[in-house]
Specification:
The chain has about 140 residues and is mainly β. It has helices at about 10-15, 25-30, 100-105, and strands at about 5-10, 20-25, 40, 40-50, 55-70, 75-90, 95.
């Protein structure tokens, strides 16, 4: 069962806070990931609401992984993340945390990613992945 993303502030206040942990389907947060990237099908989340004064504080951690092409050799690899969210809401009505979690997950998407720090990339002449060994075309990288 997936975690709810919409909460009643009144219920949170009545319970003097709220703690939840569980799974969130990634398509409920990011229905269409950016081009050439895939998000793990299920994200795990630890959600905590605290009540103080005239506001409610959300502290959450969302964990998952992006599958991305390497910027040098184009091999797909996983980039794991643990996105932290901290947000304050007014003390009335309802709160939907989906947008806050979505933004945190998208901010974990790197603009460039390497499969390994020492990735050798592709041969500029024949396109062979030089991580698999030298190419036969004789080009100097």
């Amino acid at each position: 069962m997936s975690l709810p993303l919409r909460f009643s502030i009144g219920e949170i206040q009545a319970k003097q806070g709220l703690k939840l942990a569980g799974e969130i389907p990634s398509e409920s947060l990011v229905p269409q990931p950016p081009a050439e990237s895939r998000l793990s099908k299920v994200l795990t989340a630890d959600i905590r609401f605290s009540v103080g004064g005239n506001s409610v504080l959300l502290q959450a951690v969302v964990e998952g992984a992006w599958t991305l092409p390497c910027s040098r050799c184009l091999s797909e690899h996983l980039v794991r993340f643990a996105a932290q969210v901290e947000e304050t809401y007014p003390s009335s009505g309802f709160v939907d945390i989906a947008e806050d979690l979505r933004q945190a997950v998208l901010l974990e998407l790197p603009s460039r990613s390497l499969c390994a720090p020492a990735c050798k990339g592709l041969c500029p002449r024949c396109g062979r992945n030089l991580n698999d060994g030298p190419c036969a075309c004789g080009a100097k990288a």
